[in-house]
Amino acid sequence: MNKFYPEKIFVEEDVEGLSLTKQVVERCKDVPVEVVKSAKDLIASLKGKRFSLSEGKKNLLLCRNRGRFLAPCPGTKKDYLCCGYVILNTGTGCPLDCSYCVLQAYLNNPFITLFVNQQEMMDELLSGSMLGRGEIVRIGTGEYMDSLALEHLTDFIPFILPFLRKNPDLILELKTKTTHIENLIDLDHGNSFVVSWSLNAEKIMKEEEIGAATVKDRIKAASLLIEKGYRVSFHFDPVIYYPGWEQDYQETIELLKENIPPDKITWISIGSLRYMPALKHIAQKRFSGTAIYSQEFISGLDGKMRYLQGQRTEIYQKMCSWLKAYSADILIYYCMESKTVWNSTLGYSPASNAGLKKLLDERVLF
Amino acid sequence: MEFASEKISVASIDLQDRRFKIREDTGGEELKESVEKTGLINCPYLISSEADAKYRIVCGFKRIKAVLELGLKEITVNIIDDCSDEKELFLLALHDNLAGLPLNLVEKANAVKSLLKYFQEEDVIKKYLPLLGLPPVFGCLEEMLLIEGLDPEIKQGIVNGTVAKKNGLSLFGLGSDGLILYRLFMKVNLSTSKQSEIIESCSDISRRDQLPISEIISEKEITEALSRDDLTLSQKGDRIRFFLRKKRFPMLTGLEGRFLTLKKKLGLPGNIRFEPPPSFEGEVYSLQINFRNLEELKSSSDRVKLLAENPLIKGLLEKDE
Question: Does A294 touch chain B (CB under 8 A)?
Answer without folding.
Answer: yes
